[in-house]
Give the backbone structure.
Amino acid sequence: MPKPCVTTSAASSAPMPEDMAEVLRAASEADMPRVSALARWVWLDSYATEGVSASYASYVERAFAPAALRAVAGSHWVVESADGFLLAWAHVDPHADYPVPGIGGGVELAQLYIAPPCQGRGLGPRLLRHARELDPHRPLWLSAWEGNAGALKFYRREGAESRGETWFELDGQRHRNEVLAWPALQLEKA
């Protein structure tokens, strides 16, 4: 069995041994089956609080199939442990130009998923910072389910501001999502 998730902390000043460091990199075609598994795991852990319904099972099969992930616009980024385990994934879509009130169009952070045993260890801030740096002249926005208190707390702690709402529909049921956003990064002049 693999050892529990051991990662660096954003707040930690202690360096990780070289053989324990994680790598943040663009996802490859070969990563898609692992991204699919991670996405299903995190989605069900976050939303299937009463168990897995038929509609939830159908949704994760459809939305997170490797072929479906390959077909979506944007870029995929992963964090992988030195021993080859996928710890986190982000999907960034620069073409989902949602008109965020008070900010304008921006880049969508469509998903930011951290393996449950690895949450709280600095991977989320690392991927979020990377997503913002991909197109620093444009704001970054996302939508998060109002019942996902942990995610909402994380995004607000990282400086996101509420910019409205949107709705996610699944089998005729509407679920309210908050729209959160960050302004474009201010580039420092050299």
DSSP finds five helices and seven strands in the chain. The longest strand covers residues 161-170. The helical segments are 32-47, 54-63, 66-71, 123-134, 149-157. Residues 7-19 have pLDDT under 50 and may be disordered.
